Structure formats: C-alpha cells, structure tokens
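Notes to self after the Tuesday call (sharing in case useful).
The group wants a holo model before anyone commits to mutagenesis around the pocket. I volunteered. Ligand is 2-acetamido-2-deoxy-beta-D-glucopyranose. Logging inputs and output together so the record is complete.
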Amino acid sequence: MAFKALAIFASLASLVVAVPQASPDAATTASVRCPDGNIAPHSACCPFFALRDDLLENLFQGVCGEDAHQAVRLIFHDSIAFSQSMERKGIFSGGGADGSVLVFPDVEANRAENAGISDGVQGQLPFLSRHPVTAADLVQFAAAVGITNCPGAPRLKFFTGRPNATAVPPEGLVPSPADDVTTILARFADASSAISPDDVVALLSSHSIANADHVDPDIQAVPFDSTQNTFDTQLFLEVLLKGIGFPGSANNSGEVSSPLPIGTAAQPGELRLQSDFAIARDPRTACTWQSFINNQELMQNAFVVAVDKMSRIGLKNPQNLVDCSVVVPQPVAKVTKPATYPATKSFKDIQQACPKRFPSLASDPGATETLVAGQVGT
Ligand code: HEM
Ligand SMILES: *[C@@H]1O[C@H](CO)[C@@H](O)[C@H](O)[C@H]1NC(C)=O
Ligand SMILES: *[C@@H]1O[C@H](CO)[C@@H](O)[C@H](O)[C@H]1NC(C)=O
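Result:
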C-alpha cells in the first residue's frame, strides 16, 4: 500500500520535474527522481548522490588533504595508460580511463612509474564495494568530489558510463618527471589526439595541490608550491623562480633545484619536478604556463576542459557517456588573494621564457625565505 502510493507519487513527481533544462548537455533529457529522492538528469546518475556524500564524509573529511590530492592524481595514473599507436599495431595497451588501478589493486600500484598511488587506491576500494558504480567512474568521480575541498578549485564535470577494466595496461605509459618535454607531450597526444600541449599545461594545475613522497626518498610530503592546500596559481609563478637549492638530497632523478628549499619537519620546503621546470620554460608551453599566473579563472576553466578530455582516454564509445555533473558539489571557497612572490623574491628571480608581458605582482612581506605550508589532514 505504502509502496503503491510512493510509486504514484514518484511518477507524478517525475512528470512535474520533466521541464526543459537550460544547459545544452541536458536539453534532450527529462529529469528523473531517484529512489533516494534526489533529482537527476538521468537514472544513471542516481547512485552518485549517495557515493558523493559517503566520499565527502568518510574519505575526504572536510579537508584538501592527502586523500583529495591522491584522488586527483589517480585520474592521471588511471587514464594515461593507453596508447593509440600501440592499438593500431594490434598490441593491447590498456583501457585508459577504465579503473584498472582499482580493479587490479595490486598491479599498477606496485609499479615504480606509479610510486605513491597505493594509498589513493586503498582509500577508494571500500567505496567500490559499497556503491553500484564501476571502478572507472569511481576514479573520475572521486577526483571531482575531492577537489571541491580545496579552496580555489573549479567544479569539474562528471560523466558516467565507463565500463570496468578487464585487463591491466602494459608498463611504460606513465610519464616520468625525468622525461623531456617532447616525450611528455608525445605521450599525452598518443593517449588522446584531443590533448594538446596547452591541455598538458592546464592539467599541471593539479600540482598546485600536490606533494611528493618518493622523488627524494629521504623526505616526505614535500609540496610543489607554497600553498599545497589551495588550488591557486602560485605553482605557475613559483616554478619560474630561479632554483637555489634542494629541500633534501641533491641528485634525485626527476628533481631540480627549488627556489624555496628551506624546510622544517612541519614545513618541509618546496620540491621542484624537472618536468614542471622544463614545461614552464619550453617554447611550446611557456606562454600558456605564464598566462595562468594570477589568472585563477583562466586556469580553472582550462583545467576543467583538459580533465574532461583526459577522462575519455581509451573509451570506445565516449559519446554514450551520461552527464551527471549536477551531482558534483560546489567547491568550498573561492581564491580571492592575488598571486604573490614569496618573501624576498621578486621579478628579478624569474626565469621568463615567454616573450609576453609578465604580470605585475607584489612580494610577501618578510626578510627571510617563505616557509611552505605543511599538509593538512591525514
Ligand atoms: C607531465 C606529467 C606528470 C608528471 C611527470 C608528474 C609527476 C608527479 C610526481 C613525480 C609526483 C610526486 C609523487 C610522489 O613522489 O609521491 C606527482 C604528484 C602529483 N601529481 Fe603529478 N605528474 C604529472 C601530471 C599530473 C597530472 C596530469 C595530474 C592530474 C591532473 C597530476 C596530479 C598530481 C597530484 C595531485 C600529485 C600529488 C599527490 C599527493 O600529494 O599525494 N599530475 N606528480
Ligand atoms: C566493477 O569491478 C568492481 C571490482 O572488481 C566490482 O566491485 C564491481 O561490481 C564491478 N562493476 C560492474 C558494473 O561490473
Ligand atoms: C651529484 O652528481 C654529480 C654528477 O654525477 C656529482 O658530481 C655530485 O658530487 C653529486 N652531488 C651529490 C650531493 O651527491
């Protein structure tokens, strides 16, 4: 009885909400009422409301901490493992954005090229068993949800419909920080012809909320910019500063000298990847890199577009994905503070590689080197 009444109510409700949507993506789909009462553009979106709430409460726990960082890194390590050129030669090259990192949790996570992803993988596995979604969709969705805990983050798109991985990708498809720019750009283009050098720069906005545990084996959680808990443009400014030393040992593969090497246990100094250094200065990418400095909105929008492209790598029928972006939460806060030079630094410390006018920025006050922000949460 109660069920029947509910069913009638549900069908009436879905009639009531079947109004045309303003967004072009939703224009052809009427809204549906999910079993849990949420309104979605398509029934395929329904499981993601409960998954979202579970992730926010039990994985990301209100901070832009390690779990959010890891979730954003995982979309890269899952998606990039695909090669169009190998596929053309008939060699199996993985499924791209297929969730293979979760479906075979003991394989890719143990490869040197993926050093550091295992915590992210282990953190997401319980959500795969609790929710009726594929591993591939979970990886993409978790990043879109997790990044909203980082002030300054954009609201990423989320589409569902990726099948589960059926096999692990071969090794050797994940770029290394020791690779040169030509190799890195070629690797992205081979994964998806849609990904341009500009998109690669945009994707590196992710290193604004990042730290390294494995580049220098002696020190952990060493951030790439002075504000690892904020999705801001400091990364693009700071990577252009002259390097003066290392936060830990010198001579690590994939690491070059940093402008802010001074560290303490709580504030470990800044670490610079050789790949970020080189992409910031390469003629193919330097102007896009520079354009993001102090231009939060440009960086955010470019990141949304590039992540969407990366999330379709290797998919056989990307046109069949269903847009569930409405389920993605609003980011917690905007960044309103302009980019600034760390204390003691100014334009004289910039190694400018793009001939266009450099933005005019203030320097943080203080007579000693800025100590970088430590990691929040666990
Ligand atoms: C040019 C290609 C890239 C290279 C060579 C690269 C390299 C690295 C390295 C070496 C680390 C440190 C890992 C560790 O030692 O713990 C790292 C961290 C990270 N990367 Fe990348 N990366 C690249 C592209 C990307 C992309 C496309 C994304 C996502 C859109 C991404 C997101 C992250 C994040 C969020 C972290 C921090 C993880 C944490 O704090 O736990 N990276 N990256
Ligand atoms: C995808 O794989 C995971 C892990 O093996 C499993 O829990 C889930 O039920 C699978 N989903 C589908 C739709 O096959
Ligand atoms: C780093 O490597 C260079 C060349 O291989 C060597 O000359 C130098 O002593 C090394 N520095 C350290 C601190 O190990």
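Two things stood out.
The beta strands are 32-33, 39-40, 159-160, 211-212, 222-223, 255-256, 272-273, 322-323.
The pocket of 2-acetamido-2-deoxy-beta-D-glucopyranose (ligand 3) is lined by residues 250-251 (CB under 6 Å).
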